[in-house]
Amino acid sequence: MTPNGYPAPPSIDWLMTMPALLVAGVGIVALMVEMFWPRRSNSAIIFLSLIGLAVAGYFTAIQFGMPDGETFARMIVRDRLGLVLQLLLIGIAFISILFSEGYLREKRIPFGEFYPLLLWATSGGMVMIATKSLLIQFIGLEILSIALYVMAGMSRNEAKSEESAIKYFLLGAFASSFFLYGIAFVYGATGGLHLDLIAEAWKADDPSMRNLLLFGFGLILIGLSFKSAFVPFHQWTPDVYQGAPTNVTAFMAAGSKVAAIGALFRVLEASGVMQEFWMPALFWIAIFTMTLGNLVACTQRDVKRTLGYSSIANAGYLLVALLAHFKSPDKVGLQATIFYLVAYSLMTLGAFAVVSLAAKGGKEGTRFHDLAGLYRRAPVAAGLLVVFVASLIGIPPTAGFFGKYFIFLDALQADLAPLAIVLAVNSAISIYYYLGIVRAAFVAEDSPVRPAMSGPVTFGNSLATAICAVGVLGISFVTAPVFEFLAGR
Amino acid sequence: MVQEWLQGLPPFWLGLIRVLLLVLPILILVPGLIWWERRLLSWMQDRIGPNRTGTLNVPRWFPIKSWRGKKLRTFGLLQPIADGVKLFLKEDITPDAVDRKLYFIAPAIALFPAFALGGVLPFGPWLSDNPATAGFYALLTPVANVDIGILYVLAISSLGVYGVVLAGYASNNKYSLLGGLRASAQLISYELAMGVSLACIVMASGSLKMTEMVRSQEGPLWGVVPWIQNWFLFTPYGLISAVVFLICMVAETNRAPFDLPEAENEIIAGYHTEYSSMKFAVFFMGEYAAMFIFGGIFATVFLGGYNLLPVNWLAIGDSVPALSGVMGFMDRLNYALAPLWFLGKCAGGITFYVWLRATLPRLRYDQLMSLGWKSLLPLAVANFIIVAIWIMGTAKWGVAGGWIAWAGASLLAVLLYLQVMSTYKSGFPDMQRRKVVLTDGIPNAPVGAGAD
Amino acid sequence: MDTNLIVFLAMALVAAVAAVGVVAMNNPVRSALCLVVNFFVLAFVYFSLRAELMGISQILVYTGAIMVLFLFVIMLLNLGGRGGTLEERPDVKPGIGVGLGIALFALIAFQVLFPLQASATPRAPDDYGLPQTVGRNLFTTYVLPFELASVLLLVGIVGAILLAKRKM
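^ inputs. structure came back:
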């Protein structure tokens, strides 16, 4: 308190908040560029966005090695996990933007507003990760979600896109309200919005407060489960993934998941004291998520839907990794979770980037037979698709293999053998539908009635897929240094 | 003496007195307002208007001989009373198909905000913020000098639309429904610009309290001219705010040229088509009371409230000692008759309403929307930002620096506006060049819509 | 029973009845009106807690703007016709909903109400809820969430325009 009785302004370490604020600010500048100097192409906006993301990435990267801490009245936190995930989100946005313009032009929806929205969504996800305050987490979640609702419905002359936006919006709003209601209960029990207060309130050992806390915590968990697409809160995923423009789907699959898992980690970490309650529940959720995602994916005939179910299954794998860490935090670090998040983001983005080639002249085909003949029209892209799918399946020497392998080991180490076994079985199941995607790309165009569609392979798309492929293949050769870096040694 | 007696009263009675002092004048003045509107309108339109009712024929037995047989003219002053009697005695028709409860409750809901709105209006000076030393008028006005004064005005004024919307809905009549729809859309569109324009003034005056907003206008003009009061209307940012607020206030009271909810040549009488007799009269009264109060709000926020003229009498007296006696008297006069000056400003507001009605044709619906969203709101928001810059400049570099910052910011805003206007003069060039599929154009067959 | 309690109970009762009305009414216009009443009375509960700014914002934002839009949409879609358009087939869902609602209420009542009643009457500081206090806090301690919320609103505006503009 200052002498005049008003609260003192918080001391601010601007560097900590810089990346997220910078990304949001670049979004605003990009919007102004679109408003004041609209041009034939969005090149200026894209260029600006990429530069902004790169600078934000730079400011994130230089923070590695700096001491952990909190700033802005304990609303922004800096630690290794937060920095890595923020960097990952920036990378996801970067790659999404790279292959967006070509795709949007082919779909005839090259709105300049798309890029600001994407940047804001990224900044929302970043603050979600980089905070231990429930208030900031909620606002970040909403920024991310609302931007995604809009982007999902961007292709307005497609009924599917509209359906996707509406579904995502209604269910997402419902989930957000769960999250918010949970925050209200936690606030009631702890008297504050900082996550560290949960442990304090729990240790105060007041039974009525404990019940309140548990209830609120459960609601928060439901909200975040929706965002991460855990079963039984996954129903929106396939429809939304299928209907949304493919570049948005790619960002949704990768970015939204990274943010949600990051936020979930923060919440679970803070409520470790309640582990006896949530561990069994999340254990079963993980099993159902993996199994259901993979089984239903086998019946799909649409690439984007299949990848949607695959993302549900992958959320299950990630949950296993998180649970293994929390079950025995001493033995098992977070490295496997982060590693798999990176690997998953790269391979999903790459796969969607290749799938996005099937758009031309305002139309897009996403069913398996629309991919037919891809190997002839775009041989490199088809080849890279094989790499991404191999990684999704978990075939060595791809990143996906190592990611799953480490999660498997972690689960065994943390006495979660059932989860490890379910994970292994599910990986086997997933081979079936992933191979279906590859097969679709490598059969000849069969029907002259519905010719397969394919747009030109743009430079941006090539670059995006190349980065993803290099990442997916390259990271597996440097797993040891990466792990050491993630562990902060 | 009166002051001591009032101070001795229990708070409840004092409160009641304050409420009556607000409500009774309005109730009494409303018929007068109607007469004033009709007479003024007829004068502006070069016709005669109501001039008969109230004319007295002096009878033949009248004691003063020279008056016998003459007519005592009151210019139709009794016309509103005759109208009132007519409305009272008319048959009250309630159509069969109405939603009875809502139909009955709607006029009451329409009337309530009009009166409640005046609750924070000071029609007399508060000498200081502390009620104990604020002087005589502080005991009588406003009904409640709350911290959130101007927000209260915004909140209550937005409730007024419920009466209209409910009337439109409950009447079970398509024209009424249209009237209600129009009213709600209109309110939403203009509420925003009104709020932002008031926010500028709140920032400039540094308080939400109505009494303090008036007091802050008694300072030197532009911060430099001590003899003239700094009424917000005279400041450049305040002028923009005032224009925006004025337009929004006419729109919120559903008066011409914004009387779309009751546009008689389009939707009969809009929301009150199915209302007759007293229920109609209540709507009528609500509208006039709202006009009156909004005139008062405009006077309070932009026109120096209860001050007669924008002159700091005492400051002139200090500068020109020879005049100090006269100026002291003027200052006391200004204080003592404050409610009168305030009433005069309200009357001016009403006159302005009438003038608008006589001058401007009704807006089309799309014009209404584009005026609200595309002109007033951006203008108000730009003004808001510029006021903030002005305040920052004043705080950092003094008065002159503040005005330089203001001018720079305004110039920048104008340049940006011109840039946007020149870009979008020919439609949306970027979108056309980018081959965006037009949603309203040729329908594009949805892709991938097949069953899965 | 002191007057404060009576006033509070009266307001709480109206708010609760209105809240039930929102769910129970068959006619969407009436439901919306019940919500209006609920919001309005809630504002007075805030006033009684000395949170004037909060209360007036409640009226300004919810009662004055959002609910007007609700009514606008309901009337535009003409859902308010006679013979409730919202009738559902008899189902177990309302039963489950009522059950869960009662359970939730019981939970809150037992966990919050009784402990709070046992504790000493909490007193807010004198300047609690004043516009000045709220403003100062908003622009010092809570400046980051405040600014992020403005980004959120910006996203909403840009998104709405992107989705709604018809002529490209």
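The mean pLDDT of chain A is 87. Chain A touches chain B at residues 34-41, 105, 108-112, 156-160, 242, 301-302, 305, 362-367 (CB under 8 Å).
thumbs up if we can close this ticket
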